[in-house]
Specification:
This protein is an alpha+beta fold and about 600 residues long. It is about 20% helix and about 30% strand. It is built from 13 helices and 34 strands. This is Btk-binding protein-related.
Length: about 600
């Protein structure tokens, strides 16, 4: 799995054969996609098969469709994606500036009546100017089956698209342009499913739910099967704030902030096995704390806080992976691929998504440490030693491999490639995938265990031997740091210090950490002749020594911690442009850390 992906799929193989190398008609288990992963996946949404949209970078998207080349889209540089949503043949993108953009099939452009037919195409992203013209800032948006809802200016609700079955909540009016939707209280959240004609809203009373639209099978949860053309109170959850709601063709699923899972609608898809016209707690999940939810047209996936995955609903074409393609009326526990077992102790990493006849499983790295090291490993740049036999030498970064194994390179070489024994090239690669980014492949798992045994390492690795924890510990290992950043200091600040040389203070660091985490340092080293064996570099960023040390520690730990004598406002101001200047991949995580400091010290 060189250049492997964390994206796994299951479903109707005939439709998504272009994604995998499997030869079966269907995918009865999680199957690794062929999509090469060079950036963390933030979100995946699926339109009418066979197509789906992947959000990877702050302003970049990738579109995959059967019998077509992969399309790449980039929004203007100042725009950062906040969310992406989908309907059958339409995608909409919300940016942090409150603007909305669209991708739509020209044959189904009426799903986005804000666009002209010649604008609605998968060839390019088209801006929807209506909201800017009306001076509306879009906070969030959802899409269902040919209908859209927009929450604007904090609490104003608008809807557009098809109003069949009253799904726009505007009575019998047509929604060719976004029209305001009247709700008795100020709307705070909006919910839908991409294959649904039912929509839900919460207000300033977060435990009070409203719904409108299709209700043929009781999926609105109002106690009847009558469609609702205006927002109607569903039921009060008595203090249980609503986390999320999602619907399919015939059913709706709700999760509260406490993790309780409720459902209503058609008996074969609602998780109860009997018809329900009101939201009722699903008995099989009563003791589980649900944290994620995704519905396809007829299937549902729910992930718990313990990273346990459950699925139910129609399953004739393996829309979710089970031993047999039998539909399940009740939640069935689903095994995760071996690749994901390394992340079971980490929260908010595993992501689930459902399409009409496909399900997705992927990782959204809150920090990109493992992803940065993955890229560094495959680049083979600036390695300082090699392991392997005489015929197959693999370049590696000494400090990383020695710290993760607690063995020297010489010891590793003797144990794995001694005279009487030698692991093969494939085994070496699998071992290094674990070293660099914690990957344990489903394939040849016994051979990896054999490698661990030769090194006398515990297999499987304990939860205390994860990449994240090892790198955080490596920060404290000054003896193995093989590089120094020289920061010029002002004369008034000079003191007697063993780390100071002339007018510079030296900050020790591991070279591979700089290479993995910062595009600026990678570019800097590209211009240096490796024969010079550079082990120092001068910092010209005009950052203070104090803030630079905090940033270097962040490279290892993915967190920012301030000492009592440090000025939080000064540090936040100095690091506010660090993502752009140092060319970091983990924009979201660093900004989140700075936001925590702002909130902690009331700097807003």
């Amino acid at each position: 799995m060189s250049n492997s992906s964390s994206l796994y799929i299951t479903g109707f193989k005939k439709v998504f054969s272009f994604l995998t190398q499997e030869k079966n008609n269907n995918l009865p288990k999680w199957t690794e996609s062929k999509i090469k992963k060079t950036q963390t996946i933030k979100k995946i949404v699926s339109g009418n098969p066979p197509n789906f949209l992947v959000w990877k970078k702050p302003n970049k998207l990738e579109f995959y469709q059967k019998d077509s080349e992969k399309r790449k889209y980039q929004l203007p540089k100042k725009e950062k994606i906040k969310d992406i949503v989908s309907s059958f043949q339409t995608y909409q993108i919300l940016t942090e500036s409150g603007k909305v953009w669209s991708l739509a099939n020209e044959n189904r452009f009426k799903e986005v009546p804000l666009l002209d037919a010649d604008q609605s195409t998968f060839e390019k992203i088209s801006p929807i100017t209506f909201f800017q013209e009306k001076k509306l800032f879009v906070n969030s948006l959802v899409m269902g089956f040919t209908s859209c809802y927009y929450l604007c200016n904090g609490d104003q609700l608008y809807a557009s698209g098809s109003n069949s079955q009253g799904r726009l909540g505007i009575g019998k009016s047509k929604g060719l342009k976004p029209l305001p939707v009247y709700v008795q209280d100020k709307v705070s959240k909006i919910f839908a499913g991409s294959h649904s004609s039912s929509f839900f809203f919460t207000t300033s009373q977060p435990d009070l739910l409203y719904s409108c639209g299709n209700n043929r099978d009781g999926e609105l949860g109002i106690g009847s099967t009558v469609d609702q053309s205006t927002p109607t109170v569903v039921q009060n959850f008595k203090g249980s704030e609503i986390l999320t709601v999602s619907s399919g063709y015939y059913h709706s699923i709700l999760i509260t902030q406490k993790g309780q899972t409720y459902s209503c609608g058609y008996q074969r898809t609602n998780g109860h096995g009997v018809q329900k016209t009101i939201f009722t707690l699903i008995p099989q999940l009563k003791e589980k704390k649900a944290v994620q939810l995704s519905t396809g047209s007829t299937q549902t996936l729910v992930l718990t806080d313990q990273n346990e995955l459950y699925g139910w609903g129609f399953n004739e074409d393996f829309y979710y992976p089970t031993d047999e393609s039998n539909s399940s009326k009740f939640p069935t526990k689903i095994s995760l691929p071996g690749f994901f077992t390394n992340y079971l102790e980490s929260k908010d990493l595993i992501r689930i998504a459902c399409g009409s006849n496909i399900s997705f499983l992927y990782l959204d790295f809150k920090n990109t440490l493992s992803q940065d090291l993955r890229i560094l490993f495959h680049s083979k740049k600036f390695c300082d030693c090699e392991i392997g036999n005489l015929k197959n030498q693999t370049p590696v970064h000494k400090a990383l491999i020695e710290f993760r194994t607690k063995l020297t390179i010489d010891q590793i070489q003797k144990k794995l490639f001694g005279e009487k024994k030698s692991i093969n090239k494939e085994q070496t690669l699998d071992f290094l995938k674990w070293v660099y980014y914690d990957e344990i492949s489903d394939k040849d798992i016994n051979k990896l265990e054999q490698t661990f045994n030769l090194l006398k390492l515990t297999y499987p690795p304990s939860v205390d031997n994860t990449l994240e924890k090892d790198i955080a510990q490596l920060y404290k290992d000054d003896d193995s740091k093989d590089f120094k950043i020289m920061v010029k200091i002002e004369e008034d600040d000079q003191e007697d210090d063993e780390d100071k040389e002339g007018n510079y203070e030296e900050i020790p660091v591991h070279k591979f950490i700089l290479l993995a985490r910062s595009g600026l340092f990678r570019s800097m080293f590209d211009y240096v002749n490796e024969k010079e064996n550079l082990n120092k570099v001068q910092d010209y960023t005009n950052k203070s020594i104090e803030s630079l040390k905090i940033l270097i520690k962040y490279f290892y730990t993915n967190s920012i911690e301030l000492k009592t004598n440090q000025d939080p406002k000064f540090i936040v101001d100095e690091l506010s442009d660090a993502v752009e200047y140092y060319q970091l991949n983990d924009q979201c995580n660093l900004e989140s850390e700075l936001l925590k400091i702002k909130k902690q010290f009331d700097l807003n």
